[in-house]
Design goal:
The complex is a heterodimer.
Chain A: H1 10-22, E1 28-33, E2 38-43, E3 49-54, E4 59-64, E5 71-75, E6 80-84, E7 91-96, E8 101-106, E9 113-117, E10 122-126, E11 133-138, E12 143-148, E13 154-159, E14 164-169, E15 175-180, E16 185-190, E17 196-201, E18 206-211, E19 218-224, E20 240-242, E21 248-252, E22 258-263, E23 269-274, E24 279-284, E25 290-295, E26 300-305, E27 310-316, E28 321-326
Antiparallel strand pairs in A: 1-2, 1-28, 2-3, 4-5, 5-6, 6-7, 8-9, 9-10, 10-11, 12-13, 13-14, 14-15, 16-17, 17-18, 18-19, 20-21, 21-22, 22-23, 24-25, 25-26, 26-27
Chain B: H1 4-17, E1 30-39, H2 59-76, E2 78-87, H3 92-101, E3 106-110, H4 113-123, E4 128-131, E5 148-150, H5 155-169, E6 173-178, H6 182-198, E7 201-207, H7 220-231, E8 240-244, E9 264-266, E10 271-273, H8 284-295, H9 301-320, H10 325-332, E11 360-363, E12 368-372
Parallel strand pairs in B: 1-2, 1-3, 3-4, 4-5, 6-7, 6-8, 8-9
Antiparallel strand pairs in B: 10-11, 11-12
Helix pairs in contact in B: 2-8, 2-9, 3-4, 5-6, 9-10
The chains are: A mainly beta, B alpha/beta.
Chain lengths: 329, 403
């Protein structure tokens, strides 16, 4: 186990049980539609749209509490994070988020919520129960991507104009390390062994693999992309997801309309999957049978069979789907 | 206690986590000194009062860039300082001499072509000068200088950007109306070249002669409404009216007043620009917001270009860890350089003449109508090189990179 090794608190262990129990059942898939100010609800078995409900202005980041009782949505243009009941879609409350919240990450314990404020060069830490702002951490210009180490001790924030991954200690809220990556870093994701951090750079066109096994984290490799017939400028990596066993890394390539499949051991690209237009964020269904991608310019989501590396379906949702989260139960 | 307290915490945090590079940087901050010089020439008022130049034109962009650089710099141990100077054309050489005497070797210019060239030469080969305003192609071609990089797009990049869009629309019959000043002639020539390059046809040309006088008068629209239809009457069949009016003498009068019901493009109507205040794509909303909070006004092209110039310096400093002009120039011209600048793709420099490649925005001032290069215009090495003069056509030898 490395420094950022997996945290298995009681709450998470319970969630784990819930996963196993519910695998045979359909899950709700929530998609934030940036342009529509709605969230589309899909059924992960039939892949039918089962509901659509109105949310705040310009919904982007979307996540759920580990117990599946709260759905969090960044309403960017309302400068707030909204909390919805995933069963009734009723607005339960709002959280102070700082201006223009875009992406966030929730502690595996369900609290606190770490929010990047793109407009204010800050990461805001909010207690989701008391709604108190616990800390505001000054970071680089245009903070965007957020990730937590599996043990929850390190928070990563990427800043788009500063071109860095900031390593923030979640107990002191101090930045303990900065790693320069390529231009306009959008998203960060740890592997589950906590040996690597993947950071996508949209304009740089690369995914930096940051080695976490040495005394100091450093970029060990930069994954580049090449698709015949697609102009290099359009290969813009955004969302990143790693399978539980760390064997596969999926990277959404934005306007290239492809998801790259990367071998989690060698960090070499093994496949490109054709999805909808401007593919942005992704989420696994529990058990990782499927990966759902949001495609902002074709107003749909693509469903990828994870074992087969195949796109099996696309489903129309609202206008400009941005983020996606799958209910754990 | 105030001095030692935070340090102690920092050391403890480092110790606990066993890594801590990039900390305690304030103590060893390297100063990066730059200057932005704007040459103000006394000209006539613009036709529209929306175009009146603010006092901090360009400088506000420099302030934002310095803040952006400084935010990054504080993590890496660099302290970015930028001074801004507005001078007359006569005082420009003296300002350069003074900066150089004080050891400032990173200089951004907001000036016309002739002034830019003179100041780049006055700054000397050991300085790095960035042109953030002059659009003259000759500064990148026959009159190029090794110490001069260009972040402002050329006239030919702008005219090619518009022409690609007209071709995409199949609006290929152009009625060109140009002004009577030398820069209008240069712009008209750039449009003729773009039309030939992409296959559009200029079906008729007319010159709108500047007869002097005040630009604006009360109820001036009454005369405009009578004069412009007559001026544009009886032209060959055309799809658009193309205005080449860099001097701002007549183009804004054209829309809605032309004899034929045709859209106006170029210096009015749909305009090719490096930036405009309504741009929202690719994260630009936050960028515009940061700028407006600093300056209290919308961002102009000069602001964006000054921001670009200083961000080139900031990016080169943070990647190389150096602050001397030669290292920064070498990095900017290398394959490793890339700048994210809210245009959807990385901006890089053309190694043969030091011109920054960049998408051209087409705007009606209310929205981004389109962004060039347009789909379908191909290039063997970089799609952005479909805009402006390309490597095989270059007349620049100062960069020692000719194929």
């Amino acid at each position: 186990m490395t420094r950022f090794g997996k945290m298995v608190p009681a709450a998470l262990a319970l969630t784990g049980l819930a996963f196993t129990a519910s695998n045979a059942w359909a899950n709700k898939v929530f998609v934030s539609n940036e342009r529509d100010n709605t969230v589309t609800v899909l059924d992960s078995e039939s892949w039918e749209v089962v509901d659509t409900f109105a949310v705040g202005n310009r919904p982007r980041g979307i996540t759920m509490s580990p117990d599946g009782t709260r759905l969090y949505v960044c309403a960017s243009d309302d400068d707030t994070v909204q909390i919805f009941d995933p069963a009734t879609y009723a607005l339960i409350g709002t959280l102070p988020s700082g201006p223009d919240p875009e992406l966030f990450v929730l502690s595996a314990l369900g609290n606190p919520l770490y929010i990047s404020n793109e407009d204010d060069n800050l990461v805001t830490v909010v207690d989701v129960n008391t709604r108190e702002v616990l800390a505001e951490v000054p970071v680089g210009v245009e903070p965007e991507g957020m990730a937590l180490s599996p043990d929850g001790t390190i928070l990563i924030n990427t800043s788009e104009t500063t071109n860095m991954a900031h390593f923030i200690d979640t107990s002191s809220y101090e930045i303990v390390h900065n790693v320069l990556v390529d231009a306009r870093p959008r998203y960060a994701e740890f592997n589950h062994a906590a040996t690597k951090l993947y950071v996508s750079a949209e304009v740089g066109g690369t995914v930096s693999v940051i080695d976490l096994t040495q005394a100091e984290p450093s970029v060990a490799k930069k994954i580049t992309f090449e698709v015949p017939g697609v102009t290099a400028e359009w290969l813009q990596p955004v969302g990143v997801r790693v399978t539980d066993d760390d064997s596969k890394v999926f990277v959404a390539l934005g306007p290239a309309n492809r998801v790259a499949v990367i071998d989690g051991k060698t960090d070499e690209v093994s496949d490109y999957l054709m999805v909808g237009q401007r593919v942005w964020q992704m989420a696994f269904t529990p058990g990782e049978k499927y990966l759902v991608t949001t495609n902002g310019n074709s107003n749909d989501v693509s469903i990828i069979d994870v074992a087969d590396n195949k796109v099996i379906k696309s489903v129309q949702v609202g206008q400009q789907p941005w983020g996606v989260v799958v209910a754990p139960n | 206690m105030r001095i030692f307290g935070p340090c102690k915490l920092t050391i403890l945090a480092c110790f606990a986590l066993s890594f801590c590079a990039g900390l305690a940087v304030e103590a060893r901050a390297v100063e990066v000194k730059a200057a932005v010089i704007r040459v103000d020439n006394k000209g006539l008022l613009p036709i529209s009062r929306l175009d009146l130049p603010p006092d901090d034109l360009g400088f506000a962009g420099a302030v934002l860039a310095t803040e952006d650089n400084q935010t990054t710099g504080k993590f890496l141990g660099f302290d970015f300082q930028t001074e801004t100077l507005a001078v007359t054309a006569e005082a420009a050489p003296g300002a350069i001499a003074d900066l150089r005497a004080r050891g400032v070797a990173l200089i951004v210019l907001l000036a016309n072509g002739e002034e830019t060239l003179a100041m780049a030469d006055a700054a000397g080969p050991d300085a790095l000068v960035l042109n953030a305003r002059a659009r003259d192609d000759r500064l990148r071609e026959e009159d190029c200088r090794a110490n001069l990089l260009h972040v402002a797009p050329t006239r030919s990049m702008l005219t090619d950007g518009l022409m690609q869009f007209l071709m995409w629309k199949k609006w290929t019959r152009l009625f060109l109306i140009h002004g009577s000043h030398p820069e209008d002639a240069l712009l008209a020539e750039a449009y003729r070249h773009s039309a030939r390059k992409f296959g559009a046809k200029i079906v008729e040309e007319r010159e709108f002669t500047d007869r002097g006088g005040a630009r604006v008068s009360d109820s001036g629209h009454v005369l405009v409404q009578r004069q412009i239809p007559v001026f544009t009457q009886g032209a060959e069949d055309h799809d658009v009216v193309l205005a080449a009016d860099e001097s701002d003498v007549f183009a804004p009068y054209l829309p809605y007043h032309t004899w034929d019901a045709r859209p106006v493009v170029g210096s009015a109507g749909l305009r090719p620009v490096s930036w405009h205040a309504a741009m929202e794509s690719w994260g630009a909303t936050q960028f515009q917001g940061r700028f407006e909070r600093i300056s209290g006004r919308p961002m102009r092209e000069e602001d964006y270009q000054a921001w670009l110039a200083l961000r080139v310096i900031g990016e080169a400093v943070s990647r190389t860890g150096k602050a001397d002009p030669a290292s920064l120039r070498a990095y900017a011209l290398s394959d490793a350089f890339e700048l994210a600048a809210f245009k959807g793709q990385k901006l890089t420099f053309r190694t043969w003449n030091g011109q920054m490649r960049q998408p051209i925005l087409l705007s009606d001032r209310t929205l981004t109508v389109s962004v060039s290069p347009q789909e379908g215009f191909l290039h063997q090495s970089n799609l952005l090189d479909t805009l402006g003069r390309d490597r095989p056509e270059t007349a620049c030898t100062a960069f020692g990179d000719i194929q």
